[in-house]
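Please fill in the sequence for the structure shown.

STRUCTURE ENCODING:
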């Protein structure tokens, strides 16, 4: 059956790959964006997830077009990388506000409808950085680690209503961001990955689609690494 799916930050990179995977599976997919909209074929809604009023308007738009959200993928995120002693309060606050608080906000709103339906799938997109840490990314690592505690708490709250809450933690993935890294830096990262390559956005999307499927209906509160083995044991 076609489901109503929302992917935040679904206009490019990993988010677009996730949105495309659901669309190809026959679902009705809405995506949020801030600046550049996604390709045609999605319900594209401009939304700043740090703004509660915009989030409410987002869900009302999806309700009118696709019905209540049955699958939420909280993917939207930003980085403000710098070393700890150079990190400003704004660098910290903006990353936490988008990556952690924004994800909380959309999950809370989605759960409202899922509780009425007595079913639903919530997936937070974290990062191997949230498990291992990374110099220059204190704010980003904290936000991505926080998603795990939030997801597991929600899994315990919402599970009795048929709602699963899980986390997918990508490693280094072939995106525009990794493409511009110096060759020496890329080699350094690759040397730490047991599989010896960067991941593909489609590989992240496949894991997200599966954990949102009926086949994964007895999995909740899980952290699924899709990282080529770099974070194993965490």
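FILLED IN BY: designer on duty
SEQUENCE:
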């Amino acid at each position: 059956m076609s489901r109503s799916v929302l992917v935040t930050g679904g206009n490019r990179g990993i988010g677009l790959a996730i949105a495309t995977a659901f669309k190809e599976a026959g679902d009705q997919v809405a995506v949020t964006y801030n600046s550049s909209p996604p390709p045609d074929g999605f319900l594209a809604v401009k939304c700043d997830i740090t703004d509660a009023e915009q989030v409410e308007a987002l869900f009302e738009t999806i309700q009118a077009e696709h019905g209540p959200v049955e699958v939420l993928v909280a993917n939207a995120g930003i980085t403000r990388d710098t070393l700890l002693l150079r990190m400003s309060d704004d660098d910290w606050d903006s990353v936490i506000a988008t990556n952690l608080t924004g994800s909380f906000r959309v999950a809370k709103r989605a759960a409202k409808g899922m509780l009425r339906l007595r079913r639903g799938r919530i997936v937070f997109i974290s990062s191997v950085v949230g498990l291992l840490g990374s110099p220059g990314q204190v704010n980003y690592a904290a936000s991505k680690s926080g998603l795990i505690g939030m997801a597991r708490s929600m899994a315990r709250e919402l599970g009795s209503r048929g709602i699963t809450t899980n986390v997918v933690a990508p490693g280094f993935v072939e995106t525009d961001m990794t493409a511009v890294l110096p060759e020496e830096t890329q080699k350094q990262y690759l040397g730490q990955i047991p599989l010896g390559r960067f991941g593909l956005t489609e590989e992240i999307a496949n894991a997200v689609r599966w954990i949102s499927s009926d086949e994964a209906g007895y999995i909740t509160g899980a952290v699924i690494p899709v990282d080529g083995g770099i974070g194993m044991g965490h």
